[in-house]
């Protein structure tokens, strides 16, 4: 659902995918190969929201801000299920964990990883490549090359997802029995621990 607000009409690149059950409102600019999941709300009624190329905002996320602000989710930023970004700026290729909250005027640096359910207070600033966890959030160490490699691989899946959705996502009536020729689910991504185990061999 795409809405204009006070003459601001969202700008969404044709390669990106906004799920029909998401809401994008007003002064919002969405770049190439972005994915916006069902239940997400990107609300540019009181300020400007810019998603650079390759950003994903997953199911039930909220992106909003205080009046008069402009915020940017930089290239490859990855916002996990249920997270809230309220007036914060996200750095390139960062990961915001599920159900975390990032408050006004916070700055998450490039390639940072914010753990699930973290609470980043207003105006907190984090340099690049920090692993950030807790409530209130704090840095526990730097993000390793291995962690950012794993994160980047996961984000690439979300950057492919818009094209897959445009090609194959359709509203259908459900089947009532399981067909004998039901397609097998692909196995194309490993957890961080599985990746570590593979790399150690």
Q: Can you put this structure into words, describing what you see?
A:
Strand 19 (130-133) and strand 20 (138-142) form a beta hairpin. Helices cover 16% and strands 32% of the residues. The chain has one domain (2-142): UDP N-Acetylglucosamine Acyltransferase, domain 1, CATH 2.160.10.10. The protein is globular and about 55 Å long. The mean pLDDT is 95. It has helices at 145-168, 192-200, and strands at residues 2-3, 11-12, 17-18, 23-30, 35-36, 41-51, 56-57, 62-64, 70-73, 78-79, 84-86, 89-90, 95-96, 101-102, 107-108, 113-114, 119-120, 125-126, 130-133, 138-142. It contains two helices and 20 strands. The protein has 201 residues and is of the alpha/beta class. Strands 1, 2, 4, 6, 8, 9, 11, 14 and 17 form a nine-stranded parallel β-sheet that branches. The longest helix is centred in the last third of the chain and has 24 residues, at 145-168.
Topology:
Layout lengths: L1 E2 L7 E2 L4 E2 L4 E8 L4 E2 L4 E11 L4 E2 L4 E3 L5 E4 L4 E2 L4 E3 L2 E2 L4 E2 L4 E2 L4 E2 L4 E2 L4 E2 L4 E2 L3 E4 L4 E5 L2 H24 L23 H9 L1
Parallel strand pairs: 1-4, 2-4, 3-5, 4-6, 5-7, 6-8, 6-9, 7-10, 8-11, 10-13, 11-14, 12-15, 13-16, 14-17, 15-18, 16-19
Antiparallel strand pairs: 19-20
Task: Provide the descriptors you would attach to this structure in a database record.
201 residues, alpha/beta, UDP N-Acetylglucosamine Acyltransferase, domain 1, nine-stranded parallel beta sheet, 2 helices, 16% helix, 32% strand, globular
């Amino acid at each position: 659902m795409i809405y204009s607000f006070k003459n601001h009409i969202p700008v969404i690149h044709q390669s990106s995918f906004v799920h029909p059950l998401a809401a994008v409102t007003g002064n919002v600019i969405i770049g190439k190969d972005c994915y916006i999941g069902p239940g997400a709300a990107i609300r540019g009624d009181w300020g400007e929201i810019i998603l650079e190329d390759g950003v994903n905002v997953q199911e039930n996320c909220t992106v909003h801000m205080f009046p008069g602000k402009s915020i940017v989710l930089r290239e490859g930023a990855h916002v996990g299920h249920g997270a809230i970004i309220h007036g914060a700026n996200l750095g390139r290729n960062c990961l915001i964990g599920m159900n975390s909250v990032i408050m006004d005027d916070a700055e998450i640096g490039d390639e940072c990883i914010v753990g699930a359910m973290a609470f980043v207070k207003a105006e907190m600033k984090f340099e690049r490549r920090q692993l950030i966890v807790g409530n209130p959030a704090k840095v526990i160490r730097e993000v390793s090359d291995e962690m950012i490699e794993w994160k980047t691989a996961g984000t690439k899946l979300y950057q492919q997802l818009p094209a897959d959705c445009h090609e194959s996502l359709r509203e259908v009536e459900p089947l009532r029995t399981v067909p004998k020729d039901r397609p097998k689910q692909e196995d194309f991504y490993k957890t961080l621990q599985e990746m570590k185990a593979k790399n150690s061999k």
